[in-house]
Q: What sequence folds into this?
């Protein structure tokens, strides 16, 4: 399923956070969204997933589920890993009575195997490391076989090896589900390893759109400043 | 003109006005949220969309874990009232009415109100901070994105457990209160147990019991609904969780007193 965003505008109170942006993500494509903190990346994902309403514009997604992997995992801390991963299958209206206890066990253990965490069904989120929590939240998000997946800083705060693992899952899921994926990230490794295309947000607008290698060429003043992490350039950090 | 405007905007009166305006807006929007959510919850209950496993867990939390505190508070209040009243009444020749007075007081007011306050401070605050934490850590968003109705999943078992469990808590607390009243009267005013319970029977009507049960169910549902709503709409990290919890307790206390007034007017006026 593809995701198409047209002339999207979002205000919080009177502050324009997303200011007329348009882009499209095809099936089986990974789009990376980069930009400084506060540039509106998470807001774009929340708008697409329908968590918050937008002021004007259009978001067109074809049939199917949208999954989201949250910035801080957002695992249900009162539920164990099994209940976390099987949550949608147990609680969603259209899926509720479809699966037996046995089915659920099979599905959960298969998803856990996919993210390399076999046999931790009975652990609680607080007993897991940050990287493991991220991977469990991955498993939880894809349990309904979504047609599009939104990742909010999936590798932020992870050690390099965990980051690589997550990046591999992103690519693998794109291939397996033929999903349209959007990855919000600060990390160059995540961009180069996963993304087919990159857009850069600044002040609610798209200031760059291209492939990762075009981004690295640094002929756009915005991406140049981002890639070199320079304080000099068109973008200023706002408090 | 513009300097006058600027001056006005810096004045304390204007700041006070702004303060009240935001206060007033908050009251309106929270009330709106509560009404909207109750309709949603009612629909879920009528369609029997209830997670019974979760309901059982919440009932245990609402009704069982809170018992020690609720019983102590109602019990101690009864001891205080009896110790003040029994001696005085016996001295004035009204010993035969102590049991009646205590029972009516406890069944109609003390048992319900004090239980309500105890449950609010214990369960209401924990419901609010739980949901607020889930909100600010994006767990509520995660429920929504997974396609699950977060109001059905979070509110229905909690509010229902309040409605179901509160009457049991109040009945138990009232029994403890009446018994401790008898014990205290006996100890402080030498009033016989027989005289106390004879007059207690005389003074108590079935209507008092029914109203008490109905009232406690309403209180329980209200405490759970208000606390969950305040938590559900929290925002802004740890500070937001604290604010939501405070708001839940204050609003629940006020709601309890208002409901109590409504019941007093409806049933005993
Ligand atoms: N619920 C909200 N209410 C008000 N302002 C918000 C809200 N969510 C985000 N913002 C503001 O929108 C801007 C973009 O936020 P966000 O999308 O989280 O940025 P990013 O994910 O790129 O760091 C920030 O300035 C933030 O303060
Ligand atoms: Mg963000």
A:
């Amino acid at each position: 399923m593809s995701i198409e965003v047209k002339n999207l505008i979002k205000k919080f109170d009177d502050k324009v956070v997303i200011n007329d942006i348009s882009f499209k993500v095809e099936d089986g494509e990974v789009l990376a969204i980069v930009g400084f903190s506060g540039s509106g990346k998470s807001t774009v994902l929340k708008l697409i997933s329908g968590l918050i309403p937008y002021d004007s514009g259009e978001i067109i997604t074809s049939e199917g589920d949208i999954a989201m992997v949250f910035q801080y995992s957002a695992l249900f801390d009162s539920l164990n890993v099994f209940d976390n991963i099987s949550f949608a299958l147990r609680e969603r209206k259209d899926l509720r009575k479809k699966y037996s206890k046995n089915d659920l066990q099979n599905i959960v253990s298969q998803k856990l195997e996919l993210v390399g965490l076999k046999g931790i069904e009975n652990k609680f989120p607080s007993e897991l490391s940050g990287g493991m929590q991220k991977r469990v939240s991955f498993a939880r998000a894809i349990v309904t076989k979504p047609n599009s997946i939104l990742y909010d800083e999936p590798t932020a705060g992870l050690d390099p090896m965990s980051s690589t693992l997550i990046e591999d899952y992103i690519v693998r899921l794109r291939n397996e589900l033929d999903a349209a994926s959007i990855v919000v990230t600060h990390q160059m490794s995540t961009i180069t390893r996963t993304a087919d295309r990159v857009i850069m947000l600044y002040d609610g607008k798209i200031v760059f759109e291209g492939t990762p290698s075009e981004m690295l060429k640094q002929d756009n003043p915005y991406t140049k400043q981002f890639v070199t992490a320079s304080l000099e350039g068109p973008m200023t950090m706002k408090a | 003109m513009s300097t006058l405007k600027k001056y006005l905007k810096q004045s304390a009166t204007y700041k006070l006005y702004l303060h009240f305006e935001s206060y007033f807006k908050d009251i309106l929007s929270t009330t709106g949220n509560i009404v909207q959510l109750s309709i949603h919850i009612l629909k879920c209950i009528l369609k029997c969309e209830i997670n019974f496993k979760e309901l059982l867990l919440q009932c245990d939390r609402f009704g069982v874990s809170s018992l020690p505190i609720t019983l102590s508070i109602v019990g101690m209040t009864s001891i205080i009232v009896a110790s003040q009243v029994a001696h005085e009444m016996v001295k004035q020749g009204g010993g035969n009415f102590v049991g009646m007075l205590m029972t009516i007081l406890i069944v109609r007011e003390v048992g319900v109100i004090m239980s309500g306050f105890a449950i609010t401070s214990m369960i209401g605050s924990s419901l609010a901070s739980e949901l607020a934490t889930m909100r600010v850590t994006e767990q509520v968003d995660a429920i929504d994105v997974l396609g699950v109705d977060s109001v059905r999943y979070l509110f229905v078992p909690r509010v229902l457990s309040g409605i179901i469990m509160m009457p049991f808590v109040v009945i138990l607390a009232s029994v403890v209160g009446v018994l401790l009243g008898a014990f205290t009267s006996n100890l402080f005013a030498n009033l016989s147990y027989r005289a106390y319970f004879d007059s207690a029977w005389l003074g108590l009507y079935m209507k008092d019991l029914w109203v008490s049960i109905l009232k406690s169910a309403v209180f329980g549902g209200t405490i759970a609904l208000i606390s969950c709503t305040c938590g559900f709409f929290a925002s802004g990290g740890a500070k937001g969780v604290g604010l939501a919890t405070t708001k839940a307790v204050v609003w629940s206390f006020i709601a309890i007193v208002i409901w109590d007034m409504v019941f007093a007017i409806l049933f005993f006026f």
Summary: The two ends of chain B are 57 Å apart (CA to CA). Chain B touches chain A through 15 residues (CB under 8 Å). Chain B is about 90% helix and 0% strand. Chain B has a mean pLDDT of 94.
